Amino acid sequence: MSISDLFDSGFKDRNKGHFSAIVRVAMENGHLSTEERLFLDKLAKQLEISQEEYAEILANPMRYPINPPHLHVQRLERLYDLSRMVYADHILGPKQKEILTRFALALGFTPGNVNYIVDKALSLLVMNVDADTFVYEMQHMNK
Fold first, then answer.
1. Which pLDDT band, with edges at 50, 70 and 90, does 53 fall under?
2. Per residue in 68-88, pLDDT tens?
3. Is 66 helix (H, G, I), strand (E, B) or coil?
4. What are phi and psi of 87, to 5 degrees?
5. Handedness of CA 93, 89, 98, 137 (dihedral sign)
6. What is the mean pLDDT of residues 17-34?
7. How far apart are the C-alpha atoms of 112 and 114, rounded to whole Å?
8. Strand ranges (DSSP E) for the chain?
9. How does the average pLDDT of the chain come out, rounded?
10. What are phi and psi of 48, to 5 degrees?
């Protein structure tokens, strides 16, 4: 029995929404790089996205809404995934920041501090931190 079998369909829908948001970021430039494809493959397995669902989401990533998590730590974890996808090409520009800002707002970060959060997230990605360090640093960035 898989972990998702223990939860309702809402759990799977949230995973699909998260995955589709990341696919949207990945496809923003019109194609998937090898690095992006590998990341999506790994993430799909972690989120228990089937091959059929994977193909469906790649074909139409707008089908699933972004479902922001309620817990701040989960928002930061999702922000980490989205930041990694934005930074997958290792080139930061205004478009990448704009995309990540939109997703950060959709995840529930407030407009008053979203620019600071996005700047911090991208600076951590430039330093190639892991997920745990990312979450820790984001939680303690005002201290």
1. very high
2. 778 999 899 989 988 887 777
3. coil
4. -95, 10
5. negative
6. 81
7. 6
8. none
9. 82
10. 55, 50
Q: Is the pLDDT of residue 19 over 50?
A: yes
What distance in Å separates the CA atoms of residue 92 and residue 16, rounded to the nearest whole number? 27
Q: How far is CA 102 from CA 35, 56, 61, 81, in A?
A: 23, 23, 16, 14
pLDDT in tens, 97-130: 887 888 888 888 999 999 999 999 999 988 999 9
Please state, in angstroms and rounded to a whole number, the distance separating the CA atoms of residues 81 and 48: 16
| 64 within 8 A of 20, measured Cβ to Cβ | yes
Q: Are 82 and 25 in contact (CB under 8 A)?
A: yes
Closest CA to 67 of 14, 4, 111, 10: 14
Rounded Cα–Cα distance for residues 58 and 43 (Å): 13
Dist. CA 116–CA 119, nearest whole Å? 5
Tokens of 54: 């994977």
pLDDT of 41 over the 70 cut: yes
Q: What angle do CA 138, 19, 85 make, to 5 degrees?
A: 55
